[in-house]
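lol so apparently i was supposed to do this last week
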Amino acid sequence: MTFEAKHLLGIEYLKPEEIRTVLELADQYVDLNRRTQKHSEALIGLTQINMFFENSTRTQASFELAGKRLGADVMNMSMQASSIKKGESLIDTALTLNAMHPDILVVRHPQSGAVNLLAEKVNCAVLNAGDGRHEHPTQALLDALTIQRAKGRLHRLSVAICGDIAHSRVARSNILLLGKMENRVRLIGPPTLMPAGIADFGVEVFDDMRAGLEGVDVVMMLRLQRERMDGGFIPSEREYYHRFGLDAEKLARAKADAIVMHPGPMNRGVEIDGTLADDINRSVIQEQVEMGVAVRMAAMDLLARNLRTSKQEGIYV
Ligand code: NCD
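anyway here it is w/ N-carbamoyl-L-aspartate bound
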Protein backbone atom coordinates (compact mmCIF):
# COMPACT_ATOMS: atom_id res chain seq x y z
CA MET A 1 0.00 0.00 0.00
CA THR A 2 1.39 3.39 -0.99
CA PHE A 3 -0.29 6.58 0.10
CA GLU A 4 1.94 9.34 1.32
CA ALA A 5 -0.25 12.40 0.90
CA LYS A 6 -1.12 14.56 3.90
CA HIS A 7 -4.10 16.17 2.15
CA LEU A 8 -6.27 15.23 -0.81
CA LEU A 9 -6.22 18.50 -2.75
CA GLY A 10 -6.16 17.24 -6.31
CA ILE A 11 -5.36 14.34 -8.59
CA GLU A 12 -2.46 16.46 -9.81
CA TYR A 13 -0.53 15.60 -6.63
CA LEU A 14 -1.18 11.83 -6.60
CA LYS A 15 1.09 9.14 -7.98
CA PRO A 16 -0.46 6.23 -9.93
CA GLU A 17 0.35 3.87 -7.00
CA GLU A 18 -1.50 6.16 -4.61
CA ILE A 19 -4.53 6.14 -6.91
CA ARG A 20 -4.39 2.34 -7.02
CA THR A 21 -4.17 2.21 -3.22
CA VAL A 22 -7.30 4.34 -2.78
CA LEU A 23 -9.22 2.21 -5.28
CA GLU A 24 -8.12 -1.05 -3.67
CA LEU A 25 -9.24 0.04 -0.22
CA ALA A 26 -12.45 1.55 -1.62
CA ASP A 27 -13.29 -1.81 -3.18
CA GLN A 28 -13.27 -3.29 0.33
CA TYR A 29 -15.50 -0.50 1.59
CA VAL A 30 -18.01 -1.26 -1.19
CA ASP A 31 -18.45 -4.70 0.39
CA LEU A 32 -18.84 -3.23 3.88
CA ASN A 33 -21.45 -0.75 2.62
CA ARG A 34 -23.52 -3.56 1.16
CA ARG A 35 -23.82 -5.25 4.56
CA THR A 36 -26.55 -4.46 7.06
CA GLN A 37 -23.93 -3.61 9.70
CA LYS A 38 -21.87 -0.92 8.01
CA HIS A 39 -19.62 0.25 10.81
CA SER A 40 -15.85 0.25 10.89
CA GLU A 41 -13.59 1.93 13.41
CA ALA A 42 -11.04 3.54 11.10
CA LEU A 43 -11.88 7.10 12.20
CA ILE A 44 -12.99 6.42 15.75
CA GLY A 45 -12.27 9.37 18.05
CA LEU A 46 -11.53 11.70 15.13
CA THR A 47 -13.46 14.86 14.33
CA GLN A 48 -14.50 15.58 10.74
CA ILE A 49 -15.85 18.99 9.78
CA ASN A 50 -17.60 19.49 6.43
CA MET A 51 -17.46 23.08 5.16
CA PHE A 52 -19.46 23.56 1.98
CA PHE A 53 -19.36 27.12 0.65
CA GLU A 54 -21.26 25.98 -2.46
CA ASN A 55 -24.44 23.96 -2.71
CA SER A 56 -24.07 20.22 -2.78
CA THR A 57 -26.41 17.30 -2.41
CA ARG A 58 -24.60 14.07 -3.15
CA THR A 59 -21.04 15.08 -2.31
CA GLN A 60 -21.91 16.43 1.12
CA ALA A 61 -24.23 13.52 1.95
CA SER A 62 -21.59 11.09 0.76
CA PHE A 63 -18.80 12.60 2.90
CA GLU A 64 -21.12 12.71 5.91
CA LEU A 65 -22.13 9.06 5.56
CA ALA A 66 -18.55 8.02 4.89
CA GLY A 67 -17.32 9.69 8.08
CA LYS A 68 -20.15 8.27 10.19
CA ARG A 69 -19.64 4.74 8.89
CA LEU A 70 -16.00 4.97 9.93
CA GLY A 71 -16.90 6.16 13.41
CA ALA A 72 -15.82 9.82 13.20
CA ASP A 73 -17.64 12.67 14.95
CA VAL A 74 -19.00 14.50 11.91
CA MET A 75 -20.11 18.11 11.93
CA ASN A 76 -21.68 19.89 8.96
CA MET A 77 -21.06 23.62 9.12
CA SER A 78 -23.85 25.56 7.53
CA MET A 79 -21.75 28.06 5.61
CA GLN A 80 -24.83 30.02 4.52
CA ALA A 81 -25.46 30.85 8.18
CA SER A 82 -21.82 31.22 9.21
CA SER A 83 -19.75 34.30 9.98
CA ILE A 84 -18.61 34.35 6.35
CA LYS A 85 -21.90 36.16 5.75
CA LYS A 86 -20.76 38.74 8.30
CA GLY A 87 -17.59 39.39 6.32
CA GLU A 88 -15.18 36.96 7.95
CA SER A 89 -12.53 35.69 5.55
CA LEU A 90 -12.15 32.06 4.59
CA ILE A 91 -8.83 31.91 6.42
CA ASP A 92 -10.27 33.36 9.66
CA THR A 93 -13.08 30.81 9.58
CA ALA A 94 -10.54 28.06 9.00
CA LEU A 95 -8.32 29.24 11.85
CA THR A 96 -11.31 29.39 14.20
CA LEU A 97 -12.28 25.83 13.33
CA ASN A 98 -8.66 24.74 13.54
CA ALA A 99 -8.56 25.87 17.15
CA MET A 100 -11.29 23.31 17.88
CA HIS A 101 -8.86 20.54 16.84
CA PRO A 102 -10.59 18.85 13.92
CA ASP A 103 -8.67 15.98 12.34
CA ILE A 104 -10.29 16.11 8.91
CA LEU A 105 -11.66 19.14 7.07
CA VAL A 106 -13.75 18.56 3.94
CA VAL A 107 -14.04 21.77 1.94
CA ARG A 108 -15.99 22.89 -1.13
CA HIS A 109 -15.47 26.45 -2.34
CA PRO A 110 -16.44 28.43 -5.46
CA GLN A 111 -12.89 29.78 -5.95
CA SER A 112 -10.19 27.73 -7.64
CA GLY A 113 -7.23 27.36 -5.29
CA ALA A 114 -9.13 28.27 -2.10
CA VAL A 115 -8.82 24.77 -0.65
CA ASN A 116 -5.04 24.62 -1.25
CA LEU A 117 -4.69 27.97 0.53
CA LEU A 118 -6.72 26.76 3.47
CA ALA A 119 -4.67 23.57 3.76
CA GLU A 120 -1.57 25.69 4.39
CA LYS A 121 -3.19 27.35 7.40
CA VAL A 122 -4.50 24.38 9.37
CA ASN A 123 -2.87 21.40 11.03
CA CYS A 124 -5.23 18.64 10.03
CA ALA A 125 -5.93 16.66 6.87
CA VAL A 126 -7.84 18.64 4.22
CA LEU A 127 -9.94 17.06 1.47
CA ASN A 128 -10.97 19.10 -1.54
CA ALA A 129 -14.67 18.48 -2.27
CA GLY A 130 -14.49 20.76 -5.33
CA ASP A 131 -12.85 24.19 -5.73
CA GLY A 132 -14.14 26.39 -8.54
CA ARG A 133 -13.12 24.95 -11.89
CA HIS A 134 -9.90 23.53 -10.49
CA GLU A 135 -10.24 20.00 -9.06
CA HIS A 136 -12.72 17.54 -7.57
CA PRO A 137 -10.42 14.63 -6.72
CA THR A 138 -12.89 12.32 -4.97
CA GLN A 139 -15.22 12.58 -7.99
CA ALA A 140 -12.44 11.44 -10.34
CA LEU A 141 -11.54 8.60 -7.94
CA LEU A 142 -15.15 7.41 -7.71
CA ASP A 143 -15.44 7.62 -11.48
CA ALA A 144 -12.25 5.56 -11.77
CA LEU A 145 -13.58 2.90 -9.41
CA THR A 146 -16.86 2.77 -11.34
CA ILE A 147 -15.00 2.36 -14.64
CA GLN A 148 -12.64 -0.26 -13.24
CA ARG A 149 -15.49 -2.36 -11.86
CA ALA A 150 -17.54 -2.08 -15.07
CA LYS A 151 -14.68 -2.63 -17.52
CA GLY A 152 -12.41 -4.89 -15.46
CA ARG A 153 -9.46 -2.50 -15.89
CA LEU A 154 -8.43 1.12 -15.68
CA HIS A 155 -5.86 1.38 -18.46
CA ARG A 156 -5.88 1.41 -22.27
CA LEU A 157 -9.53 2.51 -22.36
CA SER A 158 -10.90 5.20 -24.60
CA VAL A 159 -12.96 7.69 -22.59
CA ALA A 160 -15.05 10.56 -23.99
CA ILE A 161 -15.80 13.49 -21.67
CA CYS A 162 -18.59 15.57 -23.18
CA GLY A 163 -20.12 18.98 -22.61
CA ASP A 164 -19.10 21.97 -20.53
CA ILE A 165 -15.41 21.16 -20.14
CA ALA A 166 -14.39 24.78 -19.58
CA HIS A 167 -16.23 25.18 -16.26
CA SER A 168 -15.79 21.65 -14.98
CA ARG A 169 -13.50 20.61 -12.14
CA VAL A 170 -14.84 17.08 -12.69
CA ALA A 171 -13.43 17.10 -16.23
CA ARG A 172 -10.08 18.46 -15.06
CA SER A 173 -9.61 15.86 -12.34
CA ASN A 174 -10.74 13.07 -14.65
CA ILE A 175 -8.39 14.16 -17.44
CA LEU A 176 -5.48 14.05 -14.99
CA LEU A 177 -6.44 10.70 -13.45
CA LEU A 178 -7.23 8.92 -16.71
CA GLY A 179 -4.00 10.23 -18.20
CA LYS A 180 -1.92 9.02 -15.23
CA MET A 181 -3.45 5.56 -15.60
CA GLU A 182 -2.64 5.47 -19.34
CA ASN A 183 -6.04 5.82 -20.95
CA ARG A 184 -6.96 7.82 -24.06
CA VAL A 185 -9.17 10.81 -23.38
CA ARG A 186 -11.34 12.61 -25.93
CA LEU A 187 -13.06 15.87 -25.10
CA ILE A 188 -16.28 16.68 -26.93
CA GLY A 189 -18.09 20.01 -26.82
CA PRO A 190 -18.62 23.35 -28.55
CA PRO A 191 -15.43 25.45 -28.89
CA THR A 192 -16.98 28.05 -26.52
CA LEU A 193 -16.96 25.43 -23.73
CA MET A 194 -13.40 24.15 -24.36
CA PRO A 195 -10.63 25.70 -22.25
CA ALA A 196 -7.82 27.34 -24.20
CA GLY A 197 -4.69 25.20 -24.48
CA ILE A 198 -6.45 22.02 -23.43
CA ALA A 199 -4.81 19.98 -26.19
CA ASP A 200 -1.53 20.33 -24.21
CA PHE A 201 -3.01 17.90 -21.69
CA GLY A 202 -2.57 15.05 -24.17
CA VAL A 203 -6.26 14.80 -25.09
CA GLU A 204 -8.05 14.80 -28.45
CA VAL A 205 -10.65 17.53 -28.95
CA PHE A 206 -13.86 17.17 -31.00
CA ASP A 207 -16.77 19.51 -31.68
CA ASP A 208 -18.65 16.85 -33.63
CA MET A 209 -20.13 14.51 -31.04
CA ARG A 210 -20.75 11.61 -33.40
CA ALA A 211 -17.12 11.59 -34.54
CA GLY A 212 -15.89 11.96 -30.95
CA LEU A 213 -17.92 9.01 -29.69
CA GLU A 214 -16.72 6.62 -32.39
CA GLY A 215 -15.49 3.43 -30.72
CA VAL A 216 -15.15 4.72 -27.14
CA ASP A 217 -15.47 2.47 -24.05
CA VAL A 218 -16.80 5.13 -21.68
CA VAL A 219 -19.02 8.19 -22.23
CA MET A 220 -18.89 10.72 -19.42
CA MET A 221 -21.49 13.48 -19.64
CA LEU A 222 -21.23 16.85 -17.86
CA ARG A 223 -23.79 19.42 -16.73
CA LEU A 224 -23.86 22.89 -18.27
CA GLN A 225 -22.51 24.92 -15.32
CA ARG A 226 -24.70 27.96 -15.76
CA GLU A 227 -23.65 29.39 -12.40
CA ARG A 228 -20.10 29.74 -13.72
CA MET A 229 -21.11 31.31 -17.06
CA ASP A 230 -21.32 35.05 -17.48
CA GLY A 231 -22.56 35.27 -21.04
CA GLY A 232 -23.95 33.34 -23.98
CA PHE A 233 -21.86 30.21 -24.25
CA ILE A 234 -24.53 28.25 -26.12
CA PRO A 235 -27.21 29.40 -28.59
CA SER A 236 -30.12 27.64 -26.80
CA GLU A 237 -30.68 24.50 -24.72
CA ARG A 238 -32.65 22.98 -27.59
CA GLU A 239 -29.84 23.53 -30.05
CA TYR A 240 -27.31 22.27 -27.48
CA TYR A 241 -29.28 19.06 -26.94
CA HIS A 242 -29.51 18.54 -30.66
CA ARG A 243 -25.72 18.75 -31.10
CA PHE A 244 -24.29 17.60 -27.77
CA GLY A 245 -27.09 15.86 -25.86
CA LEU A 246 -26.47 12.14 -25.44
CA ASP A 247 -29.25 9.98 -26.86
CA ALA A 248 -29.43 6.39 -28.11
CA GLU A 249 -28.67 7.41 -31.68
CA LYS A 250 -25.41 9.21 -30.82
CA LEU A 251 -24.43 6.53 -28.30
CA ALA A 252 -24.66 3.94 -31.11
CA ARG A 253 -21.31 5.34 -32.36
CA ALA A 254 -19.56 4.16 -29.18
CA LYS A 255 -18.62 0.52 -28.51
CA ALA A 256 -21.64 -1.76 -28.10
CA ASP A 257 -20.76 -2.24 -24.42
CA ALA A 258 -19.82 1.39 -23.68
CA ILE A 259 -21.00 2.69 -20.33
CA VAL A 260 -22.68 6.05 -19.71
CA MET A 261 -21.66 8.21 -16.73
CA HIS A 262 -22.73 11.53 -15.20
CA PRO A 263 -21.51 13.08 -11.92
CA GLY A 264 -24.91 14.63 -11.23
CA PRO A 265 -26.87 16.78 -10.86
CA MET A 266 -28.32 15.90 -14.27
CA ASN A 267 -30.33 18.12 -16.56
CA ARG A 268 -32.47 15.62 -18.42
CA GLY A 269 -33.22 16.74 -21.95
CA VAL A 270 -30.30 19.23 -21.92
CA GLU A 271 -27.13 17.11 -21.86
CA ILE A 272 -28.66 13.66 -21.66
CA ASP A 273 -31.83 11.84 -22.64
CA GLY A 274 -33.71 10.85 -19.48
CA THR A 275 -34.55 7.33 -20.66
CA LEU A 276 -30.90 6.63 -21.44
CA ALA A 277 -29.81 7.93 -18.03
CA ASP A 278 -32.18 5.40 -16.42
CA ASP A 279 -31.22 2.49 -18.67
CA ILE A 280 -29.50 0.08 -16.28
CA ASN A 281 -27.91 -1.76 -19.21
CA ARG A 282 -25.91 1.31 -20.23
CA SER A 283 -25.95 3.86 -17.43
CA VAL A 284 -23.77 3.46 -14.32
CA ILE A 285 -24.92 6.73 -12.77
CA GLN A 286 -26.30 5.05 -9.63
CA GLU A 287 -23.12 2.98 -9.27
CA GLN A 288 -21.16 6.24 -9.31
CA VAL A 289 -23.12 7.43 -6.28
CA GLU A 290 -22.51 4.11 -4.51
CA MET A 291 -18.77 4.20 -5.29
CA GLY A 292 -18.67 7.78 -4.00
CA VAL A 293 -19.28 6.74 -0.39
CA ALA A 294 -16.69 3.94 -0.58
CA VAL A 295 -14.02 6.13 -2.18
CA ARG A 296 -14.51 8.86 0.43
CA MET A 297 -14.22 6.27 3.20
CA ALA A 298 -10.97 5.01 1.67
CA ALA A 299 -9.53 8.50 1.19
CA MET A 300 -10.33 9.59 4.75
CA ASP A 301 -9.06 6.30 6.19
CA LEU A 302 -5.71 6.66 4.37
CA LEU A 303 -5.31 10.31 5.34
CA ALA A 304 -6.11 9.47 8.96
CA ARG A 305 -3.38 6.80 8.97
CA ASN A 306 -0.85 9.39 7.78
CA LEU A 307 -2.19 11.92 10.27
CA ARG A 308 -1.66 9.53 13.16
CA THR A 309 1.86 8.70 12.04
CA SER A 310 2.84 12.33 11.59
CA LYS A 311 1.31 13.35 14.93
CA GLN A 312 3.34 10.63 16.60
CA GLU A 313 6.40 12.04 14.91
CA GLY A 314 5.45 15.54 15.96
CA ILE A 315 5.09 16.88 12.41
CA TYR A 316 1.62 18.38 12.79
CA VAL A 317 1.88 19.83 16.31
C1 NCD B 1 -20.17 18.17 -9.74
C2 NCD B 1 -19.53 19.34 -9.03
O1 NCD B 1 -20.04 19.86 -8.05
O2 NCD B 1 -18.48 19.74 -9.52
N1 NCD B 1 -21.15 17.51 -9.00
C3 NCD B 1 -20.85 16.66 -8.00
O3 NCD B 1 -19.91 16.83 -7.25
N2 NCD B 1 -21.64 15.60 -7.87
C4 NCD B 1 -20.61 18.49 -11.10
C5 NCD B 1 -21.69 19.53 -11.27
O4 NCD B 1 -22.02 20.28 -10.39
O5 NCD B 1 -22.21 19.56 -12.40
